[in-house]
Design goal:
mainly beta, Alpha-Beta Plaits, 3 domains, four-stranded antiparallel β-sheet
Length: about 300
């Protein structure tokens, strides 16, 4: 007994199949498949497996027509239709599937396509979003459509020119969010990366603070890090009585910088510390080690103090 509302989709094109108790193999004769003969009503899987050795098909990228039909094999399923992708998605890998009502949303490395499958024998394209950003895995929750974006070439503006810089404000790596109240015309809301991280830089790592909260760590672009260091040095120059010695730690503990100050005016040093706390770089300070205070002495004085 065929149940045509049990639908599956997959492969390079949109495939719709109905559950039945047959086993067939051969080649497709067109976009719309005819009824499969009831050859085997057994619930036992065929042996040998008819999928072994199947030949692939070919599609002319210019005309979008099949030039060679792929060999087929099925068991307990009947092919209802085989729909080629629309023009902007020809020859590009499909990723994931989601369903809402009588619509199937087909993820593709170039974006997604929405198919009306109310007539599974003749699916029709309801809408699409051409937005290259593999993998474009799709999910639906209520009236919200989520589409993943992870490729280094993926752009926030959905452009096809890619992203050349290692760190760029034009790149997206996250999730696009659409209002799918009208699935035939989804409205772009925004992306998780932009909504949560206005200044993201290059992703470094993530840490779970507890089962419900996660902390994302990003490396700010080099130009921004340098600007913060320049501000740090500029503030130090406002206190000429305090000499600032800052250097990279190069493996000392887990610290990024080693900072030392030299002055004969402790009050000026306290004012400098208060001013540095107002700089932009202080927002990104993860940890400060204790301040060690000492008196500068010449080598000869040190030997004398030690009894040498």
């Amino acid at each position: 007994m065929t149940r045509e509302r049990n639908l599956l989709l997959g492969g390079a094109a949109l495939l719709l199949v109905g559950a039945c108790m047959t086993s067939t193999s051969g080649t497709s004769s067109g976009v719309v498949a005819g009824p499969a003969p009831a050859i085997d009503l057994s619930t036992t899987a065929p042996n040998p497996d008819p999928r072994v050795g199947l030949k692939p098909g070919k599609v002319d990228s210019a005309t979008r027509r099949m030039t060679e039909y792929a060999a087929e094999a099925s068991w307990n399923l009947r092919l209802l239709s085989n729909t080629p992708p629309s023009e902007k998605f020809v020859g590009v890998t499909n990723s994931d599937l989601a369903f809402t009502g009588y619509y199937a949303i087909q993820g593709n490395y170039n974006g997604y396509q929405v198919w009306n499958i109310s007539n599974p024998r003749r699916p029709t394209l309801a809408s699409y979003a051409h937005c290259p950003a593999s993998q474009s895995d799709v999910s639906v929750f209520g009236k919200i459509l989520f589409v993943s974006a992870e490729a280094a070439s993926a752009r926030l503006d959905c452009g096809t020119q890619g992203v050349q810089d290692t760190v760029s404000r034009e790149r997206i790596r996250g999730i696009r969010i659409f209002d799918a109240t009208d699935i035939r015309n989804p409205k772009y809301i925004g992306n998780v990366q932009k909504l949560c991280h206005e200044r993201r830089g290059e992703f470094d790592s993530m840490h779970y603070l507890d089962p419900t909260r996660v902390e994302f760590v990003y490396q700010l672009p080099l130009a921004e890090r340098q600007a913060m260091m320049d501000e740090h040095i500029a503030v130090g120059n406002r206190f000429p009585s305090v000499r600032l010695h800052t250097t990279y730690s190069f493996g000392l503990d887990d610290q990024e910088f080693v900072v030392a100050f030299e002055t004969d005016e402790p009050a000026d040093f306290l004012d400098l510390v208060m001013a540095l706390r107002e700089t932009k770089g202080s927002r990104y300070t993860v940890r400060d080690t204790p301040i060690f205070t000492c008196v500068a002495r010449s080598f000869e004085h040190l030997l004398t103090d030690l009894g040498g």
